[in-house]
Amino acid sequence: MNKPGRKGLTRLWDATRYSRKGLSAAWQHEEAFRQEVTLALILFPSAFWLGQTALERIALIIPVVLVVIVELINSAIEAAIDRIGTEKHPLSGQAKDIGSAAVLMSLLLCLTSWGLIIVDRFF
Predict the structure, then answer these.
(1) pLDDT attached to residue 1
(2) How big is the CA angle at 43 (ends 102 and 98), to the nearest 5 degrees?
(3) Which CATH number fits domain 31-122: 3.30.930.10, 2.60.120.260, 1.10.287.3610, 2.30.33.40?
(4) In terms of C-beta distances under 8 Å and separation of at least 24 residues, what long-range contacts does 55-58 make, across chains too?
(5) DSSP for residue 4
(6) pLDDT of residue 2
(7) Which residues are tagged catalytic?
(8) Is there a binding annotation on residue 33?
(9) Cβ density class 57-75: b for 16+ within 10 Å, e for less
(10) Is 56 one of the annotated binding-site residues?
(11) Annotation-wise, does 28 bind a ligand?
(12) Which percentage of the chain shows pLDDT scores above 90?
């Protein structure tokens, strides 16, 4: 079923504007997002120095991008839960904990990828 609304380039323009607003809100309100973006800005150039092949560079860059993506999703989950209400509810806590676990898993994936390539290159 098609949703009513704008189509074509207008829809694309609106979607881009909403995404910019989302990135801005995450930067403004989420300390973890700022830390992970800062880390990404350091790791991206390092990936081109550390990775000796295109596949190694991709294996270094993709997990870093994944961490940022998962953090954005986690922040969206937290914002939606907080919007519902401030009272404690087991399902709200569970949703936030699962989102946090997803971030942890993406960070462990990133650490593993970088660790394996560093060990391969230097040891």
Answers:
(1) 60
(2) 5
(3) 1.10.287.3610
(4) 56/117
(5) S
(6) 65
(7) 71
(8) yes
(9) bebbbebbebbbebbbebb
(10) no
(11) no
(12) 86
